[in-house]
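Please describe the entry underneath.
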Amino acid sequence: MRIRTYGISDVGQRRRNNEDAYLINRIEVFKDGEKRVFYVLAVADGMGGHEAGEVASGMAVDRLTAAPLTYLAGDVEGIRKIIEFVNKKVHERSQKMGKKMGTTLVAALIEDNKGYIFNVGDSRAYLFRNGKLRQLTKDHSVVQELLDKGLITKEEAKTHPDRHVITMAIGTKDQVHPDTYSIYFDKGDILLLCSDGVTDMVSDEELEEILTNNTRLSTIGGEIVKRANANGGKDNITVVLAAF
């Protein structure tokens, strides 16, 4: 299946530095004389301030492609090993720098029409299929835990004072336990990965409208950034798209 990809990142309206990072990488692996082609896509949102958050998010996406190719086994265990590898490298760097830093990470490993999505933190993955947008990942955050327990509503979650407090991140501890999801893509699907600079500023309804009204990925990405900035641009804004 032919896959088109696009990524864009913007500092937003309020921040001086961009602590987001993204990755779009095509990897060829030869196994038993057969060529296998993987796409690795990712969005990371760093924490820890200038020269810490930027380092953490940058390292996370860089180390995704530095992970041993033997981990690209196309199963959940391989995915977990990749995340463990990335987390270890960022955590070691944090210890050496003497700074508390970490990053969210939402990523996809895709081969043909099969994909694995993995998530740590509150950056998100969405699937746009047949004109409808569906969130694939669940945030690791205080607000999500309150939602799961029925203690707050979705409307209350949008303005909750702890809405940016995440409960899991890459690099903050020596071990991490990502959520993993498997999915088969259909022709016409669009996979959207994004940081919370998008989801805090642009509603799911607005995202669905943009995806419905545009076909070119660069236009979709640009419109999402434009809308996030128009709605306040309170954080860095990063979008990665894959069309099938």
User: Anything to note?
Assistant: Helices lie at 53-66, 76-97, 142-148, 154-159, 196-199, 204-213, 217-230. The mean pLDDT is 91.
